[in-house]
Amino acid sequence: MTRVVTDGAADLPEELAARLAIEVVRGPVRFGERRWEGQQTDFWAALRRGERLPATEAPSVEQLAGAYDADGPVLALHVSRELSRTLANAEAAALASTREVHVIDTRSLSVGTALVAVAAGEAVASGVDWERLQRLASGWVDAVHVHAVIDDADLLVRGGRAGLVAAKVSKHARRHVVAVKGHVIPIRQVRNRGEAIREMIAHVREHATDGVTRWAVGHGDADDVGDLVGRLAAVFGCDPAFVTLLGAPVGSHLGPGAVAVAFFSHN
């Protein structure tokens, strides 16, 4: 039977991954010298305490090879090559595997990659054959959009990755509205959260004019996520496939209060 594999930077709820038999391969997370292992809620509590800057690593070639090495062909759906070493490691693992492994760059991140994985898991469960599954996955990659608000760029600045969102991060407008399509696309820096959310929703509307087939939200322990989900449901005309906390690989960079929305567009 075909298996679907993704990585920890795809923010896929554990219960959904288990239900659809999607294997999630996670790289190590550290706070200082201490390797962190625990629940997402514990991670966000530690991050808010600000004791140490978290550091994450992509899943290793060995980890991915272990995930691929089982019966049946493997559809390996991983976060964008431009944002992580995971895809390069996945390709190396696939080359060394004796199994049939088809590696796909989702050109996305977080709940965007997760939506692609969920669609693939559902297709496998419904009996879609291997060749058609690969074609469908390529279409989902083209259809997925991700928009996000980074509530405070401090973790990006401290981690030396501020260049992902802006040539220069303003001290007075540290909230960033971005999109992801292969790489991070900076949209705007703003002063307050309300303005950032409005800007993100406006850009979501532009890419969802012909409707969406499914959508999801990931957030960095954001207090206002319920309100955001309600506003997005009004835009999309349906409820989300899931709402989840961002995991450590993405949360370590986007920080507390961040929100990301992903959706499959018809256009």
Overview of the molecule:
Helices cover 39% and strands 25% of the residues. With 267 residues, the chain is of the alpha/beta class. It folds into 2 domains: 141 residues, 3-Layer(aba) Sandwich (Rossmann fold); 122 residues, Hypothetical Protein Tm841, Chain: A,domain 3. It has a 6-stranded mixed β-sheet with strand order 10-9-8-13-11-12, sandwiched between helices. The protein has a 4-stranded parallel β-sheet with strand order 2-1-6-7, with helices on both faces. A 3-stranded antiparallel β-sheet has the order 4-3-5, covered by helices on one side. A hairpin with a 1-residue loop joins strand 9 and strand 10. Helix 5 runs antiparallel to helix 6. The radius of gyration is 18 Å and the shape is globular. The mean pLDDT is 91.
Name of the CATH class of the largest domain:
Alpha Beta
Report the helical percentage: 25-40%
Low-confidence stretches: none
Tertiary shape: globular
CATH fold-level assignment of the largest domain? Rossmann fold
Secondary-structure element pattern, one letter each? EHEEEHEHEHEHHEHEEHEHEHE
Short structural summary:
The chain has 267 residues and is α/β, with parallel strands linked by helices. The chain is 39% helix and 25% strand. The protein starts with a strand and ends with a strand.
